[in-house]
Amino acid sequence: MTESSSTSAHKPTAGQWERALSSEWLARGQEAYIRRQRYAINFATATVRFFKRMVTTPDAANDVVSQLRSALERCDELTFNETPDAFAYLLWHQIDRYHRVSQTLDRLFQLGILPLAKPGRPLRVLEVGSGPAPASYAAIDYYAVLADWAKSRSEVFQISSNTEAHTLDRGRAWQQIVHGLSEELLNIEDRQSLRERGPFRTRFFNITYPEFENFSPGQLHINARERMKREILDEDELWQFQLDTDYQDLNQYAATRVSPSAYDLIIVANFVTSSSMMDSFKAELENLANSLVPGGILLTLSGRNQKYKDLWKDYAALPHVNRLEHVVDEVMQAHQDPEVHGRVTRSTVSLLTHLEVLAEQGLDKAELPQDINEAMRLPLTDPSSIASVQAVTYPTFQVHGFVRRDRAISTRDRKRIAGRRGADADA
After folding, report:
1. Geometric angle at alpha carbon 323, from 318 and 326, rounded to 5°
2. Where are the beta strands (DSSP E) in 56-213?
3. pTM for the whole structure
4. Whole-angstrom distance, CA of residue 142 vs CA of residue 73
5. CA 291 to CA 266: how far, in whole Å?
6. Tens digit of pLDDT for each residue in 307-366?
7. Is residue 44 packed enough to be buried (19+ CB in 10 Å), middle (13-18) or exposed (0-12)?
8. d(Cα 135, Cα 128) in Å, to the nearest integer?
């Protein structure tokens, strides 16, 4: 008996639903695939347009070119307080990381562990070390298509299409970039949604949190809730609370109006890059493990060398992380889909060509990788160049996933419960 037939007599669990339909969801050429590619094309188009609209002078181009090598190989040495650093990073990583995250979410779906939210509440995502927020954009698009696809199939299992993305990064340049890129996306998507009557996606226009030090979603939620309660009592919103019969008390009402205390999906991508960072942010990283709803996933994406292996081994051993279930430990090849591979390459080459035209000495000092140099000499709009575009190589990356299976219980409470059970057994 197949899983789909075994669950047809009753409403499936989220995991059963995902595993039963993963082949159909991931099938190339099908409706879901086509719509996902369209959203990805929109994202790539918006990124390229925004970059070209912002970098328009020889001086600006020269400044970005001077940072290309560092943004490709030494990101952890850059502060991203200045726009040249940020735009160099955007050129190499924005579209690339968007697709890596989408690919990783596909893997979670295959395994039946992709977090889902019921209709009526947003699915909440936190991206740590977000930079220009590629993971947040990817998650918003992914869940919008998935919810619309499930609805179109008249599935008994319906999910929320609303994704609330929160981002965290200290680089001062990201605020302007995220705002401008979101506006560029809206210009494209509003026209498309009206034309196709498709879903509108929730957009974000800023970096939510500027600092990871002492970061605790639970404490932030409590502080914001108390501020909201004071505002409700002091201002004209008290009448709205009194009229809203969905909430029994002011605490509950205020809690719905502020940032969440826990997330469905937390994504940490290439953020922790050294043992010193792991030591410095140990408490904050453990707080992330305590900031998941039941069924929530803490997802990390990183390089594969020994440094990262040691870092994430140490992280998995932290007490609060160790209480989660380590459900994913896989190496993935970036951009296996030829369409995705070509899109990432063409977008990167388009932006580099833009810089080459503007910069006084072109890209002579950029020390570009050899495969990118070769791709730049090809007419990428010519179908005959497709094979050469595919010759551009992208690295494998490491994915770890930690799931909170049920409501977290402290070690002290576990011992107390175990002791009570022992006493009951003796009685």
Report:
1. 85
2. 123-128, 163-168
3. 0.87
4. 29
5. 9
6. 899 999 999 999 999 999 999 999 999 999 989 999 999 999 999 999 999 998 889 888
7. buried
8. 10
